[in-house]
Specification:
Blueprint lengths: L6 E7 L7 H20 L4 E7 L4 H10 L4 H12 L2 E9 L2 E2 L1 H8 L10 E8 L7 H12 L3 E2 L4 E4 L14 H16 L23 H10 L1
Parallel strand pairs: 1-2, 1-3, 3-5, 5-6, 5-7
Antiparallel strand pairs: 3-4
C-alpha cells in the first residue's frame, strides 16, 4: 500500500497579477522537481500549485475570525501534508509580500517540521536577491522546515537568460533546485542547508537528509 502512495509536491505562489512571473517560476520549479522524481523512482508524483491571490479574502477573514473557510483549509492541509514544498513570493519593499507572510502566519509553527522546502522569489531588479537569505530562510527556519541549499531568484532580465561561462542562467538554477528537492523528498543525500559540514559528515561533506530531520525534531 505504501509503495503506491503518491509523492506530493506543493508550490505556493504569492503573485498578484495574472499572468504572473511568480506563478511561472513556481510552475517551472514544480515541473523540474516532478521530472527528477519521475526519473529517479517508481512512485506516482502529484503536483499542486496554491495561488494565494485567489485566497486573499479568505486569509484576511481567517486572521480576523480564527476560522478558515473550507477553500483556505484545503490549501493549508495541502501545504502541511506535502512531501516537498516550493514557496515563491514577489519582492515588496525588500522582503516577501504581505500576502505570503499572512498565509504562513496561519500555519502552526511545528506543522512544517522537517519538511524540505525550496524558497524562490521574483523581482524587477537583481538587487533584491538577498531577500531569499535575510527574509525567507529565517521564516522557514522558524517553521522548522529544511530549507534546501539552492534558492532561486528571478529578476526581469533573467527570463530567457541561459547564463555564461561564469554564471548559471535561470533554467540551470531551477533544475538544480528541483533536483535537490527531489533528492530530499526521496531521502537521498543532499548538501546540508543549515550548518557547515563537519568531520562527522564524511569525506564529501554531505549530510544525510534523515540526519537533518533528526536534528530538527530534537533541537
Amino acid at each position: 500500500m505504501f509503495a503506491t502512495t503518491p509523492l506530493r509536491i506543493v508550490a505556493v505562489a504569492a503573485g498578484l497579477s495574472s499572468p504572473s512571473s511568480t506563478r511561472l517560476l513556481a510552475d517551472r520549479l514544480a515541473e523540474a522537481t516532478r521530472e527528477r522524481l519521475a526519473a529517479g523512482q517508481d512512485r506516482r508524483v502529484e503536483v499542486q500549485v496554491v495561488e494565494l491571490r485567489d485566497l486573499a479574502v479568505d486569509i484576511a477573514n481567517h486572521l480576523v475570525t480564527g476560522f478558515p473557510p473550507s477553500r483556505l483549509k484545503e490549501a493549508i492541509d495541502a501545504v502541511t501534508g506535502a512531501d516537498g514544498l516550493i514557496a515563491v513570493t514577489p519582492v515588496f519593499t525588500a522582503s516577501y509580500s504581505g500576502l505570503f507572510k499572512s498565509f504562513f502566519d496561519l500555519i502552526d509553527n511545528t506543522a512544517l517540521t522537517g519538511k524540505p522546502v525550496v524558497v524562490a522569489a521574483t523581482g524587477g531588479t537583481p538587487r533584491h536577491s538577498l531577500v531569499l537569505e535575510h527574509a525567507m530562510r529565517p521564516l522557514f527556519a522558524y517553521l522548522r522546515a529544511v530549507v534546501l541549499p539552492t534558492s532561486v531568484y528571478a529578476a526581469s532580465e533573467d527570463w530567457g537568460s541561459q547564463g555564461d561561462e561564469y554564471t548559471e542562467g535561470l533554467p540551470a538554477r531551477i533544475r538544480r533546485a528541483g533536483g535537490e528537492l527531489a533528492s530530499a523528498v526521496t531521502g537521498r543525500t543532499v548538501a546540508g542547508a543549515s550548518r557547515a559540514p563537519t568531520l562527522d559528515d564524511g569525506e564529501d561533506g554531505l549530510v544525510p537528509f534523515e540526519q537533518q530531520l533528526a536534528e530538527l525534531r530534537t533541537g
